[in-house]
Description:
The protein is mostly helical and 206 residues long. The protein has one domain. Helices cover 68% and strands 0% of the residues. It has 7 helices and no strands. Helix 4 (69-93) crosses helix 5 (103-123). The relative contact order is 0.14.
Amino acid sequence: xxxxxxxxxxxxxxxxxxAIVSTFFDTATRAxxxxxxxxxxxxxxxxxxxxxxxxxxxxxxxxGKRQSRWLVLARGCATTYIVITGVVYxxxxxxxxxxxxxxxxxxxxxxxxxxxxxxxxxxxxxxSPLSWNKLWVALIYPIVWIIxxxxxxxxxxxxxxxxxxxxxxxxxVALYAVAIAVATVVFAxxxxxxSRLHLFRSTxxx
Length: 206
């Protein structure tokens, strides 16, 4: 079990990386690609964050070291973001136009990785309980992302999603921004709560 879990995380991270790179080059074959636009989507960024954290967690486990509290906190935040991506896409956006152009990559980034991240967090108990007074950390990335999106929308006119377009009025955009912040807190609170449970103690890394 000591090497099985990190190997699984390494495999999933590699799958996510391949999906991201493949989507980038597929998009580049059909149009001139702007990396700032391509990587500006919450979907891409949340998947990149998750892939990075899974890689680090796997390498730490392979080395025989215990995960630091900061790494567990990073895992909690990454899990929060990718679960939001999966839920929002599959509940609200699936079947609509848009999304990732490659069908298999779309499934990986919107279904497989979010589902894996949730199961990894619930099943594998190699994590220390997250402190409730660190819940605010999960808000840092979404807030920075929203600020950057609003600045870009007001300057070069690019926005990743229509509901954040300043053209519809900053009052409407502010409501969506608040909704994103509230959703982040709710999902993070669930992730934080699960971190205090050990539902499958036998699967802990030993």
